[in-house]
Amino acid sequence: MNIISIIIPTLNASKFLPDLLTKLVLQTVKDKEIMVIDSSSRDDTVEIAKSFNAKVVFIPKEEFDHGGTRNLGGIESKGDILVYMTQDTIPANEYSLENLIKPLHNNNEIAAIFGRQLPNADASAFSAHLRLFNYPDTSCVRCLEDRSVYGIKTVFFSNSFSAYRRSALEEIGWFKKGLIFGEDTHAVAKLLFAGYRVAYAADALVYHSHNYTAFHEFKRYFDIGVLHRTENGILKEFGKTKGEGKKYIRSEVHYLMEHKKYSLFPAFILRNALKYLGYHLGLKYSHIPKNLACKMSMNKNWWENRP
What we know:
Layout: E1 4-10, H1 17-25, E2 32-38, H2 45-51, E3 55-58, H3 66-76, E4 81-85, E5 90-91, H4 96-106, E6 110-118, H5 125-134, E7 140-142, H6 147-150, E8 161-165, H7 166-171, H8 183-193, E9 197-207, H9 214-230, H10 232-238, H11 242-258, H12 265-283, H13 290-296, H14 300-304
Parallel strand pairs: 1-2, 1-4, 2-3, 6-9
Antiparallel strand pairs: 4-8, 5-9, 6-8, 7-9
Helix pairs in contact: 5-11, 9-10, 9-12
């Protein structure tokens, strides 16, 4: 029987952790360990984690790194299968974990898999549509050859709820350190080039969404632009993002029309204009003063740690 290690980076997570850990304890997968990698929280995060018998590893807040922190969790854990979650993700039922890891048991060619994210009960129309667009109700398995069909979407992946074969992560040298974010996308690209397949499990359900403001959308897309500039090999190998952007806009228009959200069209125009602007500024981040770029970004730590 494979041991499952569930690794959760945290920072001031007391609002989310009791519900998350309660749902994890109730999962049908029993042979598991829960590890919390805490970035020096100032609330009750650590006490809550320990009350659920989770293993806690401490790091200074300034040392958090999307890839490096997850590597630390993987190395410190004992699992053959490593499940990564974010602190604000909640399993939708007791089978979420079982359904997530099932394809890893059924197909040795699959190295990584991510689950379906459903919008939270308080999700805005924009947030709900984003989850429906990115996380459909049909499972799939992808290989490197699929890039000719799916382009950049071939490496779409989310460590908010994902599972990896430990041996496959070790083979590619774990997650890359020093990325602004997108350690999951980068790892999936390397796994595909190593000959593995990656999967999406539509029956592995969690609740996870964010009600971003228009300015938050700008910041997120600025960071995507920075990632695509710093890791431009991903775009070269898997294709541009333009086609996917057009699909998204058409889908969002249809969603707003279908749900009679006509009053949201001005916000729709503003949000997508800011996404476009943010992304293209991110691509040119090297020409922007660091203190200004930091203000445009959701990942301020990354800029503060740069020379």
